[in-house]
Amino acid sequence: MKKIDRLILRSFIGPLILTFTLSVLVLLMQFVWKYVDDLVGKGLEFTVIAELLMYASATFVPMALPIAVLFASIMTMGNFGEKYELVAMKAGGISISRAMRPMAIVAVLLTGMAFFFANNVMPTAMLKYRMTLYDITRKKPAVNIRPGEYYKEFDGYVIRVGSKSRDGRTLKDVIIYDHTDGAGSTNVIVAKSGIMEASPDNQFLKFTLYDGYTYSELTSGENFQRRPLTTIGFRQQSINFDISSFAYNKSVEENFKGSYQMMNINQLDTSIAKLEQSFDERVQLCRQSVMVNMRAWTQCLDTDNLLHAASTAEVDKLLEGLPGKDRKAAHLHARNAANAAQQDAKMYAEMLESDREYINRHFIEWHRKFTLSVACLLLFLIGAPFGSIVRKGGLGLPLVASVGFFVLYYVVGMISEKAVRESALGPEGMWISSLVLLPIGIALTLQATTDSSFFDGSTWRKVFRRLFGRGK
Questions:
Q1: Which of 7, 40, 173, 363 is most open to solvent, judged by the fewest CB atoms within 10 Å of its CB?
Q2: 225-to-147, 167, 219, 229, 231 alpha-carbon distances in Å
Q3: 36-42: long-range contacts (C-beta < 8 A, 24 or more apart)?
């Protein structure tokens, strides 16, 4: 490897790693803000949170890599241009295309690595991520009964304590509202003191109450008139609350497998083939059901002649030949049969539309593994020549340009993805965003490597003057 290649690679790899790390962190922060309410206050161990963040970060890699390649290529070539190193390279006989070659090799390698990651690592990471997130969101907040506040996390109970000792176990002025019968606060337990402790297996929280009363209010029944309110005093009473849902328990992976986001290319191909076959079979069943309803509708109108009626006028003429009572009954039965057929057809259409959308989601995931990988190379074709043209390094212009190009790619990709999901476009519509970037990359590369005047403002001014007759 020549010294010039090592210089270019050192200048490129540093911003690439930095930008990739920042991109993952930004996407991870967005994830944390979205699920912060599900993470805070549940007494989760640090290892559980770290595991979730690790799996979430892995799912962001295919999107973060194209951003990193775009920003690093703009920044590297912009720094070379700003420091006149590109001029020195040209003076030494090194063209722009030759200077871009080491970075292009890295971009191609990253494209292959991105596809490998999306096809082999991403499904497993997505499975672990979804499973861990589900287990965390299912876990209730940690038991934290504060003095003077109403605690409502136990199903069917509301607890209020006046004070709590430093050991966290001894309670004073305890009030427990029992709503388990679904009739409101008809059962209330009041105690002067109590002790709160967990069972050895951490499945129950035991309240041992001292010197209190149990108030029970009857809302119906035989004793409602004689004893609507019953008061029972006690010296000691124990109540157990189920806290099994407050523990963090890992789900079985088999319950989460099967989603299209957790499949590789081969698994998606197999799943799509099965879904397409099932879809075709369902279409045939729907057609047969609709035809049965249509036959029932025509049979209500004395089928033999009406089936061969060529127009509405002929149908009306045939109906007029029926007796008044029969004609009215035929109209009524036909209307009911037609309404039933219409409702069935609407139901089948919605069902088939839902099935088609589910199949389209598999196609979207299949093509996404390729489009996000190819985006690394496409964004490099834009970033490197753009940086050599503008000749501005640092974080200012490269950052703005990177955000602009990637937003264009992302927005077009989201629009086309929605169109594919709704069957407005075929699965190939996932490549529209790449096709939008490709001519931009080719134009910028030609401009940078051939010193074309395509982006020169004076050239375009001359063209407009000639078109409008203001110059020669």
A1: 40
A2: 38, 46, 9, 10, 16
A3: 38/133, 38/136, 38/137, 39/136, 41/141, 41/142, 41/144, 42/136, 42/139, 42/140, 42/141, 42/142, 42/248
Read off the pLDDT of residues 14-52 as tens digits, 9 standing for 90 and up. Answer: 889 988 999 899 889 888 888 877 777 667 778 888 888
Identity at 8, one-letter amino acid code: I
Q: Identity (one letter) of the amino acid at 419?
A: A
71, 204, 297, 349, 355 from 279: Cα distances, Å: 44, 49, 27, 12, 7
Helices 324-390, 96-116: inter-axial angle, 10-degree rounding: 140
Instruction: Count Cβ atoms within 10 A of the Cβ of residue 45 and give its class: 0-12 exposed, 13-18 middle, 19 or more buried.
Output: exposed
Alpha carbons 280 and 268: distance in angstroms, whole number: 18
Each domain of the chain, given as residue ranges in start order, spans 3-139+366-467, 150-246, 261-364
- Encoded amino acid at 7, one letter: L
d(CA 152, CA 236): 23
User: Can you read off the two tokens belonging to residue 430?
Assistant: 């996932």
* Predicted local confidence at residue 298, as pLDDT: 55
How far is residue 75's CA from residue 13's CA, in Å, rounded to a whole number?
11
Which two tokens mark 221? 């029944």
What token pair was written down for 303? 């089928």
Say if residues 309 and 315 touch (Cβ distance below 8 Å): yes
Q: What phi-psi label fits residue 288: left (phi over 0), alpha (psi between -120 and 50 degrees) or beta?
A: alpha
Predicted model pTM: 0.69
- Residue 204: phi, psi to the nearest 5? -135, 150
